Amino acid sequence: MSGTVYSMTGFGAGRIEAVLEDECQLTVTAEVKTVNHKHLQAKIRLPHEYSSLEPAIDKLVRQTLARGAVQLSVDVARIGGDAGVRLDASVARRYLELQVGLAAELADVSGSTELAPITSMMDLIRLPGVIVQSTGQTAAALDAAGPEASAVIDAVAAALEHLTEMRRFEGAAMRRDLENSGQEIARLVAEIATRIPDVVAHHRARLVERVGELSGHPGTTAADLAREIALLSDRLDVSEEITRLQSHLEQLENLLEGGGAIGRKLDFLAQEFFREANTIGSKCSDAAVAHLVVDLKTHVERLREQVQNVE
Question: Which residues on neighbouring strands pair with residue 12, listed in sequence order?
Fold first, then answer.
């Protein structure tokens, strides 16, 4: 949406309930939270049997968000139907086959056959993958277009929608703060620009006095006087810095008006504000301007802190 600024921090949750063909009640809960990050970094946690959906969910996240560290988790609960636990006989059988093969191989080497670790049914069912929660689907067999996959995707979409709303709400407040900072910077730049002619006049008077002193000094040449005038004039000339600051203010206004993923551009712009303020402070030794530059740097620093959380 044009003109919308988004915060990088937020939280959203989505919940979808569905009844499957086997009359199983499926409840999918998705939660997503985001914090500041220079780039988009997504960490997605899914139940194992839904891991095949990770690419689709990652794509959905990247279509929704442009920047930030994202943590997204999905939990699935099943009630009724064939929910419960089941024995994966093929996995158990494979464990036993591996044990027999390993025992035979080691017996050829050591001459001993007392190496078998599986001695009871309890030992067997404790091995990973032998006893699993029944979901009616496996990670490999999950139908990407089926009701279970759709419920998971819909829950994630709802969580992202709630997250976006929260980020939009916080972004609106941040935009107001950025606009206020921009207005204060503009006011200070205008005051500095107004003060400069008086500073120049003051230094011109001192320059005339200095030239008079040098003209009566033995060994002083016209080239020496010209060089002194050029050096003093160059030190006082901050017109380029004022012009660039005014241009940066226009860019700030345009970026906020355009909205969207503008955080990186704003960060760069804040650095440019600070650079020009530093240059003015180093060029102009006037006390009044120095105070204005200190205030200018304060508001620029506030601007720079604010943009760190803008998407």
Answer: 32
C-alpha to C-alpha distance for 120 and 95, rounded to whole angstroms: 13
> Judging by DSSP bridges, how do beta strands 40-45 and 131-134 pair with one another?
unpaired
Q: Could you give the CA distance from residue 211 to residue 93 in angstroms, rounded to a whole number?
A: 102
Backbone dihedral angles phi then psi of residue 69, each to the nearest 5 degrees: -90, 120
Taking the C-alpha atoms of residue 211 and residue 234, their distance in angstroms, rounded to an integer, is: 16
Token digits for 230? 């050029």
CATH number of 10-83+136-168: 3.30.230
Sign (positive or negative) of CA dihedral 108, 111, 117, 120: positive
Q: What is the DSSP string of 130-153?
A: TEEEE-S--TTT--TTSHHHHHHH
Domain ranges of the chain: 10-83+136-168, 92-131, 172-307
Tens of pLDDT, residues 29-81: 999 999 999 899 999 999 888 989 999 999 999 999 999 999 999 999 887 66
Whether domain 172-307 has CATH 1.20.140: the reply is yes
- When computed from its CA atoms, the radius of gyration of the chain, rounded to whole angstroms, is 35
